[in-house]
Design goal:
globular, TolA/TonB C-terminal domain, single chain, ten-stranded mixed sheet, two-stranded antiparallel ribbon, Serine Threonine Protein Phosphatase 5, Tetratricopeptide repeat
Amino acid sequence: MNKYLFTVLSFLLLFNYSGICQVDYFMQGNNYFQNGDYKTADSLFTLDIRKKSNPDSYYNRGISRLYMKDTLGFCNDMENAGKVFSDTEAVHMYDKLCCNYVDTVFFDKKYLETNRGQHRFFDVIKSIKYSQKIRGESHNIHEIYTKLTSDFSSDGFHLNEFKTGIFATFEIIDDEKIYIHTIDPPKLLNYEEIRTKSESVTQYLKTKYKWFLDKNNLTQLSVYYRYIIKPTGEISDITFISVRTDLEFSEIKDDLQKDAESIILKQKYKPGLVREKKVSVYGNYTLSIK
């Protein structure tokens, strides 16, 4: 990936440029950026992202937003470029400007804390400025794993494949690691039971909330929840995550929460593992009304 070099504030930032022919939005965005019209550049990079997924446009739009003092927008774009496309320069900029601190903890082959140079594993732990969350990645310096990420644009669904030493990602809440991803995730033990009941669950939700769909001229509604699968396999902390932002759904939120809990708690899991140790792992559930 070729880069242009630009000065941003009091330090140098790398600004991506693709030497091969790209769609006009990307090239035009670069031109407007170089002329100091960062707002127009932002809009053009956004159009490029919507038309065809392009990691350079995420990076360049982030730099444009930083010039416009939109630090949150900058951080979101650097995070996307780093996570979805494994852009190491975006990760560097994210760590430098979007984190309160970044720490590295080293472990030996028995996963006991040790000094750098004597390690086989290491955790990179970041305190995120805008969310006040603490997140981390676990790395193995002797093994390479395949990382799959996905993104959408007007030309369809994209599956991206990268090689990485990261074998787990996590958040730290009250000094406990809750894993977002592991190479040995929890396994649903009663999948067939859940699958056979899915049609009746769908019909129940449709009947109960049809009035709400009709009221809002909707054919379907998706409501997203997150929960924690504990080392025992038990489910806890079922939490509402999001729904369409243009909807006022406070009148059904409590009922939806109860229905989500009833459905999710019927799932039975074998716990997830990290280095053969049972750990807490996030699970996600989409409650679909259609």
